[in-house]
Every structure is written in C-alpha cells, then in structure tokens.
What does this fold into?
Amino acid sequence: MKLPSPARFGTVCIHAGQEPDPSTGAIITPIYQTSTYVQDALGSHKGYEYARTQNPTRAALEGNIAAIEGGKAGFAFASGMAAIGAIGTMLKAGDHVVVSKNTYGGTFRFFDKVLTRSAMSFSYVDTADLEAVEAAITPTTRMLFVETPTNPIMRLTDLGAAATVAHRHGLRLVVDNTFASPYVQQPIRFGADLVMHSTTKYLNGHSDSVGGVVVATRDDDIEWLKFVQNAEGAILGPFDAWLVLRGTKTLPLRMERHNANGLALAGFLEAHPKVATVYYPGLTSHPQHELAKRQMRGFGGMLALDLGSLEAARRFLNAIRLCALAESLGGVETLVSHPATMTHASVPAEQRAVLGITDGLVRVSAGVEDLDDIKDDLAQALDRV
Ligand SMILES: Cc1ncc(COP(=O)(O)O)c(C=O)c1O
It folds into this structure.
C-alpha cells in the first residue's frame, strides 16, 4: 500500500504509520504483546531489542499521529500526564514557563507541585491576550504552554500570533491540542514546535483507553524525547497503542459528528430560557468567533452552559438519562460534568470565580449519538431545573 503524497487528512488517519504485517499480510498492525525480541546472532537483530525502547504497535501509532498532526515524529506515553511529564524534562532548574491561565488541572498540579520542586517557575496568564504573554516573558523563559480552547470556558488563543511571540523570544510553543483534536485544529501549521494530546479523549475516542502523545518538529527535541521515553519508561502499552490506532482511523468521521452535534446543541441551549450563558466558539455570541473560524475546522464537541446556581446545576445533572454524568471527554458517548465540584474542585473558589467557573456551570462533551436523542435528554433535564 502506498500513501499518496501529499495524502489528504482522512487518508492519513487511516494509513499513515502502518504497513500490512510483513509476516502475514494482516492489514491491521498486530498487538505486539512482547517484552523482548530474539536476536539472530550476537550483535545482529531486526531493530528491536527490548519493548520499553521499541514496540512495533507503538511505533505505528507514533508514526500515525505524527502524520495526522503534521509533525516529524511522535512519542506515545502511558497517559496525557506522562506526555506532559516528558515535555517537563525539556526544562532544567532555573527555567521559566508561561502557561495558559486556565490550563487543565492536572497540568497545573504537575507544574505547581512537582516541577517547582526542581526550581522551575511558571506564570499563568490569559494567553488570549498576547500582550500579557509578552509581559510575562523573562530572560529565563523557555516555553509558552498553550491550551486552546480552554476547559471549560472555551477561551481561544491565536496560535499563529502565539507562535510569532514565542519565536521572537526564542521559546518553544507547546500546544495541548486535546480539547480540539487534530481534525479541528493543527497547531504545527500555525508554528507550534510541540503538540501534545491526552489520547484518552478524541484520538482514541471510545472511552476505553488512557494514553498520551507528544508530536515534535525539531530534530533536537525529537532526539531528546526519544531518549527520555526510554530513560523514564512511561510508555504506552501495545494494546492501548492498538486501541488508539483503531480510534484514529475514524477520527474525521467522528469529529464531523462531534462538530455538528456540538454546534446544534450550543444553539439549542443558547435559545433555552433556563440557560443563562453558553460557551461555544461556534456561536456568533462567542467573543472570539472570528478567530475560531480562522483557526478551527468546525468548532469541536465541547461546550459549557451556565444554569445560574448550584441547585439548578444539581437538578439538571441528576435528571439526565441518556447523557452520562462523568469526567473526561471526547468519547462517542455524550458526557456531562460539573467543573466546580469535579474537574476544577482543587481550584480555590475565588480563582474559579475569576475564571468564570461558577457553581451553575455544566460542561458537555457532545457525543456522536443521534442529535435529537441528546437534545430530548437535555430538554427533559432542563424541565426539572
Ligand atoms: C486538556 C487535557 N490535557 C491533558 C489531560 C491529561 O490526560 P490524561 O488524563 O490522559 O493523563 C487531560 C485530561 O483530562 C486534558 O483534558
């Protein structure tokens, strides 16, 4: 099988990184569930020595996601946090990082409670405001770490402009692209140096695997990440690599539906009298809708709605039937969650207020079910509010 060059996005998702299995012709990359590889003779092997260092199923996934993101190489880790951990090893004592203010709580916890112990420092700024980013840069800043859209308020950062600022100051632009998925947004096209994902979300897409990936563009970063992946050993196992590889084949199909359902649900909720505010970049009421149109393909499946009070949110969340009350996102099932008491419970209440994460805020990860069934469920739950 020969991938056309250049191949289009959907074709890349299905084929990149994979060849039919050379021993059998199996079209799907097997799960190489092995810890070691037999060598032909002393000093003579097939490029595989030990499975922490190399695994063909993981290598296929890494090649696949690197191609999907338009990067040079990918590295798959045991979780999204392990991927961010690998990015953290690119820093050393004394280094400073500028981070999107409302970054994923686990990322904040890792930076704030782990990396600061090794004399690294972090400034959390609204990266939608590039003057604020520029003002936060110091002579020791090495990285600009951006999440766009942010969770759960869906604030955007202009990726092209962020890359210009980062590169003007000699920084790496790192983008956590988990929330959007590479179908919706490809940060490397806008100048990002490194892109990471929790593959747990849209890339795997079926809520049945935890994993992470870093895609790199620069040869020095690739060399380091390859070294660190083996040195730290937080690798993605072969079965999970296989699951994610299966997931990426349908990424465009799923994302089209996530996009369509997200947009339709946002419109439906915005028009509903019981909903105070809806946060979704696809709505013309979103303050950065024009930027969203420029840098996103569709607007994704994530949205948030404000019901005005904790009691209203509680009544709504306790009334849903088809949609599931659960953390996480990006799976085929519609999930709803309550950021103030779930994903953002560790963020102090005053800080939550500044970020707009009120007690009445509900986050929705729009799944790919039939739209009217999701709508009916949300409507009957809103009737209880
Ligand atoms: C935006 C974002 N980044 C990183 C992570 C961490 O990924 P994982 O849970 O796979 O470690 C998450 C998890 O929810 C996330 O939402």
User: Anything to note?
Assistant: The first strand starts at residue 73 and ends at 77. DSSP finds 13 helices and twelve strands in the chain. The two ends are 55 Å apart (CA to CA). Residues 79-81, 104, 106-107, 147, 151, 176, 178-179, 198, 200, 210, 212 surround pyridoxal-5'-phosphate (CB under 6 Å).
